[in-house]
Design a protein that fits this description.
single chain, 8 helices, 55% helix
Length: 142
């Protein structure tokens, strides 16, 4: 992590470690480094740039790799049906590669605009007017 600070010496780095406040931390962040899972979708719905990273036991990785289920693991990429955000898995999940991907995302302004538009499209496709549906279901029992 030290190298990240050295590559941008003119910027002040304001870092705070939080426990039990993931949503608040995501809302405040400029970019989110996240393990694969539902947190990737939460970050996408917040329209934040994401670097997905994950490591698992090698045997599990080899089994999943042979299944060839999907070419991507992050939910934003699955829903977009393309590599929308970087995924650094297994041997690619190194501090240097994560730092490089993070800095690359933050410096590409046109990508950030496109990413926000893609995340908005995903958000709209998932939006189901749940409150109205729930009220309608309850109304049937009154």
């Amino acid at each position: 992590m030290h190298q990240i600070f050295e590559t941008r010496p003119d910027d002040q780095v304001n870092m705070q470690i939080m426990f039990g406040h993931a949503h608040d931390a995501m809302e405040a962040a400029d970019i989110i480094i996240v393990a694969s899972g539902t947190a990737t979708l939460e970050a996408a719905l917040l329209k934040k740039p994401i670097v997905i990273t994950y490591r698992m036991p090698n045997l599990s990785w080899q089994i999943l790799k042979r299944m060839k289920y999907l070419p991507y693991v992050g939910l934003p990429n699955v829903l977009a049906d393309r590599f929308l955000v970087p995924e650094l898995l297994q041997n690619d999940a190194t501090p240097q590669k994560i730092a490089d991907a993070t800095l690359r995302l933050l410096s590409d302004k046109s990508y950030l605009v496109e990413l926000k538009q893609s995340f908005t499209s995903i958000h709209l496709s998932l939006k189901q007017d749940s409150a109205k549906k729930a009220a309608k279901a309850v109304l049937n029992y009154l």
